[in-house]
UniProtKB/TrEMBL annotation:
The keyword rRNA-binding does not apply. The keyword Magnesium applies. This is GL15059. It holds the Pfam family G-alpha. SMART domains: G_alpha. It comes from Drosophila persimilis (Fruit fly). GO terms for molecular function: DNA binding; G protein-coupled receptor binding; G-protein beta/gamma-subunit complex binding; GTP binding; GTPase activity; metal ion binding. GO terms for biological process: adenylate cyclase-modulating G protein-coupled receptor signaling pathway; asymmetric neuroblast division; asymmetric protein localization involved in cell fate determination; axon ensheathment in central nervous system; calcium-mediated signaling; cortical actin cytoskeleton organization; establishment of glial blood-brain barrier; establishment of spindle orientation. The lineage of its organism: Eukaryota, Metazoa, Ecdysozoa, Arthropoda, Hexapoda. The gene is Dper\GL15059. One of its GO terms (cellular component) is heterotrimeric G-protein complex. GTP binds at residues 44-49, 151-152.
């Protein structure tokens, strides 16, 4: 009693068990070397930017596909930023330097929703350029500390010609500025 001949099935089970043990050990070693970081801070304090910069510096950065996925976000943030600046003009009692820009602003607000769909139509870009070049809009932008505006607003609005290109793919810098 108690003596038995091991079968091929038993040997396979032992080998499987050893493989599982090796995999668990390797996973444990990998997990032990992994650093976890908890970032706390108020809104717009740079938490996401730090994570993105760490990915660029300490990993391989963003792939072409990942950058392409940010196109819609870049378009949306650019349009939303200009909308915020123009809305702030009313609260800050700032007029357009050229009163003809009031109608352009109305047209812009009417057509702006296309950017949320990942499309930056040439008509919208033209309206945005006209508005962004207005002295009143620039004055409102200069006073952005008096209202909440994305830090990336100036970066994107100053890059309208580049990001409006049909073949535009956000760069690593664009992805970091997106927040």
């Amino acid at each position: 009693m108690g003596c038995a001949v091991s079968t091929a099935r038993d040997k396979e089970a032992i080998e499987r068990s050893k493989n599982i043990d090796r995999a668990l050990r390797a996973e444990g070693e990998r997990a032990a070397s992994e650093v976890k970081l908890l970032l706390l801070g108020a809104g717009e304090s740079g938490k996401s930017t730090i994570v993105k910069q760490m990915k660029i510096i300490h990993e391989t950065g963003y792939s072409q596909e990942e950058c392409e996925e940010y196109r819609r976000v870049v378009y949306s943030n650019t349009v939303q930023s200009l909308m915020v600046i123009i809305r702030a003009m009313g609260r800050l009692k700032i007029e357009f330097a050229d009163q003809g820009k009031t109608d352009i602003a109305r047209q812009f607000f009417t057509h702006a929703s296309a950017a949320d769909e990942g499309i930056l139509l040439p008509e919208i870009v033209l309206l945005m350029k006209k508005l962004w070049s207005d002295g009143g809009v620039q004055q409102s932008f200069a006073r952005s500390r008096e209202y909440q505006l994305n830090d990336s607003a100036g970066y994107y609005l100053n890059s309208l010609d580049r990001i409006a290109q049909p073949n535009y793919i956000p760069t690593q810098q664009d992805v970091c500025a997106r927040v």
